[in-house]
Amino acid sequence: MIPRPFTLPENPFPPSAFHDAYSQCLILEAEARASRVASVEGCPPPIVCARLLGHLLRLAPAGNPQGQLQREIALAYSDHPTLMRLAATYLQNFIRTFKRSSGPTPAPSEHPSRPSFEDAREYTMSMMGECTIDHRSARNHAMTRDNHRCMITGLKDHNQPDGQVAVQTAHIIPQSVNKNIGEHTAKRFQSAGVWSILSMFSRDTIIKDLAGNRIHRLENILSMNIYSHALFDELKLWLKPVEDAPHTYRVCTVTDSIRLVPGGSLPERVTFSTATDLPLPHPEFLALHALCCEVAWMSGAAEYIMDIERRIGDTKVLAKDGSTVGLLIAVLSAVEAH
């Protein structure tokens, strides 16, 4: 469970460029708490911006990911509006990337069992050369790999004998990042920004690994019960890799109250395995999702996004006095992101 929003802790870095960058975030947070910082159009509130950059800097993987963010913060030269626009970039191209509003993937219909080698060979062939795997075949392969069970709770899909719950397949890196990307389009520009940040926090090859239909590769797919899937897409559930324990994760939630799920409860820890030769979800992809979730709730960015979504639902028309202009900007940004 993560308390939210989470005030930035004392500077965790020794005297260095990282210490100086984090200090900029602390100063912005202090100024925002004292109401001495003006809002910037199109950006989250100043305090959310400060915490988003600060928590992201201290939680980002050490090395190049942390170093690149440090350099970007340093380039702001302690200018608050510039820092806030930088935070808005990460909100739009990182946090909102994982915060999905589209419906979950339906479970595939039951099909006859077959030797696991045949499934593995078919999957490998679909990934060779020009990737031919599509959404439906990815679902079928994932359900075969996971024995038609939720990977977190172990509950069996209701389409199977003695099934208990609806089991669906969830993309870790959302498939929306590759949708409708044509030449010279706003969506293509937006997608490039998303991939730049994802590669910054993981590895350069992630763009190639998940380009086009490769977004459906099994390393990017989880089988989850319908309840857990919704929580995962809402950033309320994430899997944090356990160091030196292959394919083992801590099952984290934003509050303890949501750990009870139909048919049981979420375990504290889970280890993925398969009786097939099909690949398991990649720890790096799950680590990216976990980083996004933790920063989103610690900074208040998740609640900021939910507030916008709630106001979108409540607002039917724009006010004549211009009071809803900020909401309109946020709505347009949300549409662009998806």
Provide structural commentary.
By secondary structure, this protein is mainly α. The protein contains twelve helices and seven strands. It has a three-stranded antiparallel β-sheet. Strands 1-2 form a two-stranded antiparallel sheet. The chain has a two-stranded antiparallel ribbon with strand order 5-6. α1 crosses α3 (64-74), α4 (80-98) packs across α7 and α5 (116-127) packs antiparallel against α6. It is globular and about 60 Å long.
Précis, in short:
The chain is mainly alpha-helical and 338 residues long. The chain contains 12 helices and 7 strands.
The main sheet orders its strands as 3-4-7
> Helix and strand string, N-terminal first?
HHHHHHEHHEHEEEEEHHH
Radius of gyration: 21 Å
Mean pLDDT, to the nearest integer, reads: 84
- Helicity range: 40-55%
Overall shape: it is globular
Uncertain regions spanning at least 5 consecutive residues? 102-118, 123-130, 331-338
Helix-and-strand structural type:
mainly alpha
Main sheet specs: 3 strands, antiparallel
Number of helices: 12
> How many beta strands in the DSSP annotation?
7
Q: Give the amount of beta strand, in percent.
A: 5-15%
Report the span from N to C terminus.
29 Å
Keywords for this entry:
single chain; 338 residues; mainly alpha; three-stranded antiparallel beta sheet; two-stranded antiparallel sheet; 12 helices; 7 strands; 46% helix; 8% strand; globular; disordered C terminus
Topology:
Elements: H1 17-33, H2 46-59, H3 64-74, H4 80-98, H5 116-127, H6 135-145, E1 167-171, H7 186-201, H8 206-209, E2 221-225, H9 226-233, E3 237-241, E4 248-253, E5 260-261, E6 264-265, E7 269-271, H10 283-299, H11 301-314, H12 325-337
Antiparallel strand pairs: 1-2, 3-4, 4-7, 5-6
Helix pairs in contact: 1-2, 1-3, 2-3, 2-4, 2-10, 4-7, 4-10, 5-6
